[in-house]
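Hey L., structure's done. Input below.
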Amino acid sequence: MEQFQVKDKALAPQGKLQIEWAAAHMPVLCQIKNRFAKEKPLKGLTLAACLHVTKETAVLVETLNAGGAKVVLCGSNPLSTQDDVAAALADEGVHVFAWRGQNTQEYYDCIDKVLDYEPDVTLDDGADLVGTLHSKRPAQIKKLKGGTEETTTGVVRLRAMENDGSLKYAIIAVND
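Output:
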């Protein structure tokens, strides 16, 4: 399986500086990261994330990794991806498939690469990850323990799926 796909891994040093800056401004998440590093509550879980690839998301990914999870990440919006941050995450061993300016085919190819890791949990921003699971990979749904959705648009899509009986696993709307 492909390990990562980013615009330019040489951007990693700048991305690390961006992540350090974000972490300094996210003290609660850093406290959780320290606790997770000791307790490993997510040990053995694979988390598929389709989120904005930003310095703030990177702090979340590092926290989940510290908790023992394997996080596989793709960008939920090709225009918001910070290439230096994606490179820094790849340099840390995160399976990240994201670069600024992807076309539609590349975007969905990256979602497929994330799903190739057969996740236990999904973290979605717009419900494209969940939609792809349901439309192209229904056999993988049996393994899923649950998921999250961040956006109003995604929640609307998922509620419509729930109402017509097609949503096949539990998802928490994290911003409700």
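The CA atoms of residues 53 and 81 lie 5 Å apart. The mean pLDDT is 97.

-- N.
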